């Protein structure tokens, strides 16, 4: 029915949140009720957090993760209600955004995705308190050279984001060292304001907590093309995707490989669910394709133009 283009729908991860990001979406009929249900599942007031809470209040990992997933899924439900989306939609999420992506692809219900995000967020926040760790963004440099340099400081490439961006994670003294050192082969090193070393072995306790929660989840096989952060490949089994979601807590995010697969699948347009901006920026620089950051309901028209 839509043979002339391939649409990739992207779900962002932690760090993309902004104060008031839910406000324009809650002006739509039924959305406040949806958020109220998800608030009960998450044990948080997502309406307040997404409308009036300040930046400090929503940067807590235990809060951010369910809030980001709920925001993406709320916007997706509005998008799907307004427009017929192509059956061959490509779906991918970054880090905790994979939970939203799994729901869009039919592996999880939206309710289960938000509930899992709340468990994940609380468990990862608790794991951050066990050791002094941190993260830093490395801009520029050949990936192999950057990874080898990080290893010298006991750091892991937690996010291989492509477009010249790698996020390092590990002990605080290692982060201090790479920020101070910044060799000539990289352009910039930016210390990130995060609670700990996500996507490393430091998150093992959180992984086990999520694994226990996942035992109660019923999954379906993906009904759309769903890409995995683990290797960028298409996942065809719901059980496999759930296992990957659990393992991903301690594994590197290979967004670079997800973008590579998008290219192989012929993606012409990448639309990012809110809180949008980070992933469309990476895709625009790396793939040179049309992007649409869906930050407000008015932005849905950007996708509608293509669907028309």
Topology:
Layout lengths: L6 E5 L19 H12 L3 H6 L9 H22 L7 E4 L3 H8 L5 H19 L4 E7 L3 H10 L3 E7 L2 E7 H10 L6 E4 L12 H11 L10 E3 L6 E2 L2 H10 L7 H10 L4 E4 L5 H10 L2 E4 L6 H8 L1
Helix pairs in contact: 1-5, 3-4, 3-5, 4-5, 5-8, 8-9
Report on the structure:
The protein has helices at residues 31-42, 46-51, 61-82, 97-104, 110-128, 143-152, 172-181, 204-214, 238-247, 255-264, 278-287, 300-307; strands at 7-11, 90-93, 133-139, 156-162, 165-171, 188-191, 225-227, 234-235, 269-272, 290-293. The model has no long low-confidence stretch (mean pLDDT 95). 44% of the residues lie in helices and 15% in strands. It is globular and about 50 Å long. It folds into two domains: 7-128 and 200-307, Malonyl-Coenzyme A Acyl Carrier Protein, domain 2, CATH 3.40.366.10; 133-191, Malonyl-CoA ACP transacylase, ACP-binding (Alpha-Beta Plaits, 2-Layer Sandwich), CATH 3.30.70. It has 308 residues and is α/β, with parallel strands linked by helices. Strand 9 (269-272), helix 11 (278-287) and strand 10 (290-293) form a beta-alpha-beta unit. The strands form two sheets. The chain has a six-stranded mixed β-sheet, sandwiched between helices. It has a four-stranded antiparallel β-sheet with strand order 4-5-3-6.
């Amino acid at each position: 029915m839509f043979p002339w283009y391939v649409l990739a729908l992207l779900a962002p991860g932690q760090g993309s949140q902004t104060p008031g990001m839910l406000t324009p979406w809650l002006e739509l009929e039924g959305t406040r009720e949806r958020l109220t249900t998800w608030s009960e599942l998450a044990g948080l007031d997502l309406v307040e957090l997404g409308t009036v809470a300040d930046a400090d209040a929503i940067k807590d990992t235990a809060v951010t993760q369910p809030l980001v997933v709920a925001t993406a899924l709320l916007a997706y439900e509005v998008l799907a209600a307004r427009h017929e989306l192509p059956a061959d939609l490509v779906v991918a999420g970054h880090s905790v955004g994979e939970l939203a992506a799994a729901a869009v692809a039919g592996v999880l219900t939206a309710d289960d995705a938000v509930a899992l995000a709340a468990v994940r967020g609380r468990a990862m926040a608790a794991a951050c308190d066990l050791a002094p760790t941190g993260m830093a963004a490395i801009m520029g440099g050949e990936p192999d050279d950057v990874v080898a340099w990080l290893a010298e400081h006991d750091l892991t490439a937690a996010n291989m984001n492509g477009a010249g961006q790698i996020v390092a994670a590990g002990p605080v003294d290692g982060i201090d060292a790479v920020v101070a050192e910044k060799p000539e082969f990289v352009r910039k090193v930016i210390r990130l304001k995060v609670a700990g070393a996500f996507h490393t072995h430091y998150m093992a306790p959180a992984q086990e907590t999520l694994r226990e929660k996942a035992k109660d989840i019923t999954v379906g096989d993906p009904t759309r093309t769903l890409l995995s952060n683990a290797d960028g490949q298409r996942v065809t089994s719901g059980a496999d995707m759930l296992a990957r979601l659990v393992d991903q807590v301690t594994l590197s995010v290979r967004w670079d490989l997800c973008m590579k697969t998008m290219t192989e699948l012929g993606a012409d347009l990448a639309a990012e669910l809110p809180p949008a901006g980070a992933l469309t920026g990476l895709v625009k620089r790396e793939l040179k394709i049309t992007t649409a950051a869906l930050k407000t309901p008015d932005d849905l028209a950007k996708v509608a133009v293509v669907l028309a």
